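User: Here's a structure from my thesis project, written as structure tokens. My advisor, Dr. K., wants to see whether a designed sequence matches the one we expressed. Can you design one independently, without my sequence as a hint?
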């Protein structure tokens, strides 16, 4: 006898209608981990859908002492990379039967701690932080409290971390400019309290050192990661007051690169012809700018999957897992004037 439309369809009902045991039906409908593709599992899921069965994952999670929820902490969602990172984390979490919720904190440590406590108050099973500073106390506190957590994009070098290999990325960016014939290369990077800024600068310096190129102190500018920071740095580098300006700039994220583009326009310089430019992260807008931007692509989907695994299966991954970036050449980087 089929359950009435008004009745709550139970797992027992699904098992009976499918002609399998309750334990077999439960396994077929379990959304945790890899979903079974066996003929029996597919049949059970089809019957469950026809009956209108809804698995009470909250109740079953409470019985196991977990909520199947992960908290994600980012500095801000107005940053395209952070928004894309959360989307990938949300997708990777869902693939493993988890729900991801996000909170923003800015770059202030006190705000970061308050946001983390807010997520923990909601009984999340773990935290994923895209906010880590090199001087950050929060990862240490989470380690001491044995809170399951992982850092993404940035690392403190101790807590479980999933990120791109930023030193390799910085190296690829500047090596590309050197291979085009540039020797007057400047670097605009992010805040010194972030592992990303430091590692990308280290990679740039390594490429220059191999080529026998010196990076003048006033051609290495650190600041925030916003477009306005890139504009200010680009304006200073391209002013020409000292009688010499760089022929190429590596900007350590695409926002900075777009700011440099605006500064170049102000100084009457053409990107790709008068000034070569390489960004980082390869956000979707990069390829659609008036002069498409050469950028280093960060594998966000791979980083997200690794971060989720670091929490739900911590013995599967290395404590600090680095994914390999890729250089995507476009029209913004060309040979110095007079070469070709």
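Assistant: Designed independently from the structure alone:
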């Amino acid at each position: 006898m089929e359950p009435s439309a008004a009745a709550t369809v139970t797992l027992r009902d699904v098992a009976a209608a499918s002609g399998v045991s309750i334990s077999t039906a439960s396994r077929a409908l379990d959304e945790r981990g890899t979903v079974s593709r066996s003929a029996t599992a597919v049949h059970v899921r089809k019957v469950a859908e026809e009956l209108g069965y809804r698995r009470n994952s909250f109740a079953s999670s409470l019985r196991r002492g977990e909520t199947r929820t992960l908290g994600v902490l980012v500095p801000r969602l107005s940053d395209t990379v952070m928004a894309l990172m959360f989307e990938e984390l949300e997708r990777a979490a869902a693939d493993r039967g988890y729900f991801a919720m996000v909170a923003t904190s800015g770059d202030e440590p006190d705000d970061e701690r308050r946001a983390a406590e807010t997520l923990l108050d909601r009984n999340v099973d773990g935290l994923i932080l895209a906010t880590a500073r090199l001087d950050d106390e929060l990862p240490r506190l989470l380690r001491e409290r044995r809170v399951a957590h992982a850092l993404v994009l940035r690392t403190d070098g101790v807590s479980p971390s999933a990120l791109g290999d930023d030193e390799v990325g910085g190296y690829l960016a500047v090596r590309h400019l050197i291979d085009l014939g540039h020797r007057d290369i400047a670097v605009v990077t992010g805040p010194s309290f972030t592992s990303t800024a430091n590692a990308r600068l280290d990679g740039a310096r390594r490429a220059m050192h191999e080529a026998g190129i010196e990076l003048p102190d006033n051609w290495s500018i650190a600041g925030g990661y916003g477009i306005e920071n890139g504009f200010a740095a680009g304006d200073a580098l391209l002013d020409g007051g000292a009688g010499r300006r760089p022929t190429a700039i590596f900007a350590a994220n695409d926002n900075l690169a777009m700011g440099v583009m605006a500064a170049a326009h102000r100084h009457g310089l053409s990107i790709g012809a008068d000034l070569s430019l390489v960004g980082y992260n390869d956000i979707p807008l990069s390829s659609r700018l008036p002069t498409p931007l050469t950028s280093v692509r960060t594998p966000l989907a791979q980083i997200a999957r690794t971060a989720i695994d670091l929490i739900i299966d911590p013995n599967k991954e290395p404590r600090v897992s680095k994914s390999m970036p890729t250089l995507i050449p476009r029209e913004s980087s060309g040979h110095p004037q007079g070469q070709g």
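When you compare it with your expressed construct, this may help: The two ends are 80 Å apart (CA to CA).
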